[in-house]
Amino acid sequence: MIIVDLSCREDHRFEGWFRSSDDFRDQQSRGLVSCPHCGSADVRRVPSATHIASAVEVPNSTSPEAAVPPSPLAMLKAVIGHVLANAENVGKDFPEEARRIHYHESPARAIYGEASDEACEALKEEGIEVVRLPIPKPKDFN
User: Which of 30, 5, 28 lies closest to 16 in space, CA to CA?
Assistant: First the structure.
């Protein structure tokens, strides 16, 4: 059984559970995979949030000294994948939407988008938590 993170053309994100990757591809090609939010069968796989282990065991070894930490690049990819899978892209409206959420004018939720250095500094001065990450376009994320 595999769990696949999916998104429709309206950018609704959801999971699909399949017996295998081949089973997913077969169902998708026959139009059997659809968005539970809008019903669209135009769905695609999106980067999955991956589990970041504190250490990865080296094959054929059981000693703790043999543990190898994940690379910084692997950790960054996992964080970005988690953001893409679990947050809403508000684009250039990021500063305004972050303020609306902070001041309880919009529903609380995880968001990401675009903001200048100055806009991020202004948000931080207002007490709004902001983390700048290099979020690639989904087609470039591998």
Answer: 5
